Amino acid sequence: MSLSFLEPRNGRSTADVVKFALWPLAIMTVINRVVIKAVNGDITNDFNPVYNAALAFLNRQPVYTANFDSVDPHYLYQPSATMLLSPLAVIDPERSRWLFIIASTVAILVALYILLRIFGFRLDSVAAPALLLAAFVSETVTNTLVFTNFNGFVLLGEVAFIGFLLQRKDLSAGVAMGLTLAIKPMLAPLLLLPLMTRQWKVFVTSIAVPVVMMAIAWPLSVDPMDFIDRTLPYLLQTRDYFNSAVVGNGLYYGIPDLLLLAIRVVLGVMVLVSLWLLYRYCREDRLFFFATASGLILTAHWLLGSLGQMYYSMMLFPLLMTVVLKNSLIRNWPAWLAIYGFMNADRWLSGRFVETGRALDYMRTTFGWSLLIIVIFAVLIGRYVAARKDGRLDDGIEPDYLLEDSRAAKTTKTG
User: Fold this and answer.
1) pTM of whole model > 0.85?
2) Cα–Cα distance between 82 and 226 in angstroms, integer?
3) Tens of pLDDT along 61-105?
4) Cβ proximity of 119 and 324 under 8 Å
């Protein structure tokens, strides 16, 4: 048997070598996360409440019966989600959970592939194994699979939504968004994107799909009004556990309300200014605009709203992929310090430095999201000030070297 395929060849590029190194690392990491960590599970189990709700729905029993005084995972989805997820309870809980893990993994893999294609990469590029490894080694993908929640499908809906927006397939973009809203309305703030780009048809299907699903599910549910009377008020409350939002950690540590309000206002102003600069000067670069603005909007939603959990950060993958773009706002070390805070699975609990370790572990997501907003704001303001000083705002706020590259490309074409 010849082992010549293992022998390096002269002229093989560094990219090829990196691919050969990354693919086995990425594939084995995926297998570990799915077959070992996810199947093993954890104390936190987001699947059980969903399965029990689906089983109750199929048996015409009340669904919204959770005891909100406990810190166990609760069933918080609307009736349309209960109907759409009810097939989970057709088989026994263990096999159903395994199938859900497989389906969630497939959804994440498809989302990553679409993300690659959106940014112009193929499976034979270095970016493919790098993205796969980075995604599955992260806390957000790991715990999404281990806790067995719906976020993998939400990621697929988000990436499909952005992909259809870029192609101007507005009705399809609305369907992708509407399906996620019918189950988990996490992505609702992203409807600001088609609003800013005046892609009005998106709203037709993004609103129609969840409305139709709810209209079908409502009469099929035994206790739909309990979702309004019991569950919805709970969703609007701020809890002081498993909550990385500013107000969540503020409640946990007893920070004065006035200080929390001031923090939220300052960060909120940064977000609004950043969104205005992106809209005013960057929306013609649609890939950069959609990927960057989507990440900024969602980060603000979790950080400044009533609930933000670390594994939500999966929805920031489009923003993180902008690092491959020359005009990316995250090509700097503070941005990746922020990303470490909300993506890395490291634990900072310490037996020697108990209080410091606990604070670092509990607050790192909050700090990471906050720093990301600050970095995006600072880079955009810096670009705006430099462009205004040079009198080139009419050409946008891209850095000088990017404008020079653009002019050189135009000169080459005309020449």
Assistant:
1) yes
2) 13
3) 999 988 887 777 889 999 999 999 999 999 999 999 999 999 999
4) yes
Residue 45 lies inside a defined structural domain of this protein:
no
Q: How far apart are CA 164 and CA 146, in angstroms?
A: 30
**pLDDT category of residue 5 using cuts at 50, 70 and 90:** low
pLDDT of 131-159, one tens digit each? 999 999 999 999 999 999 999 999 999 99
For 118, half-sphere exposure in the C-beta direction (CA atoms, 13 angstrom radius) is 27
Number of domains in the chain: 1
- H/E/C letters for each residue in the chain? CCCHHHCCCCCCCHHHHHHHHHHHHHHHHHHHHHHHHHHHCCCCCCHHHHHHHHHHHHCCCCCCCCCCCCCCCCCCCCHHHHHHHHHHHHCCHHHHHHHHHHHHHHHHHHHHHHHHHHCCCCCCCCHHHHHHHHHHHCHHHHHHHHHCCCHHHHHHHHHHHHHHHHCCCHHHHHHHHHHHHHHCHHHHHHHHHHHHCCCCHHHHHHHHHHHHHHHHHHHHCCCHHHHHHHHHHHHCCCCCCCCCCHHHHHHHHCCCHHHHHHHHHHHHHHHHHHHHHHHHHHCCCHHHHHHHHHHHHHHHHHHHCCCCCHHHHHHHHHHHHHHHCCCCCCCCHHHHHHHHHHHCCCCCCCCCCHHHHHHHHHHHHHHHHHHHHHHHHHHHHHHHHHHHHCCCHHHCCCCHHHHHHHHHHHHHHHC
The structure tokens 């135009």 sit at: 410
Is the per-residue pLDDT at 413 higher than 50? no
Within a domain: residue 148?
Answer: no
Residue 184's CB is within 10 A of a number of other CB atoms, namely 18
CA distance 4 to 33: 32
Asked if residue 91 is part of any domain, the answer here is: no
Q: Is 134 a member of any domain?
A: no
Residue 337 has pLDDT above 80, yes or no: yes
Cα 41 to Cα 3, 37, 88, 98, 386, distances in angstroms: 40, 6, 18, 10, 51
Place of tokens 């067995």: 148
Q: What range does the domain containing 384 cover?
A: 238-407
CA 2 to centroid of chain Cα atoms: 46
Closest CA to 240 of 308, 341, 151: 308
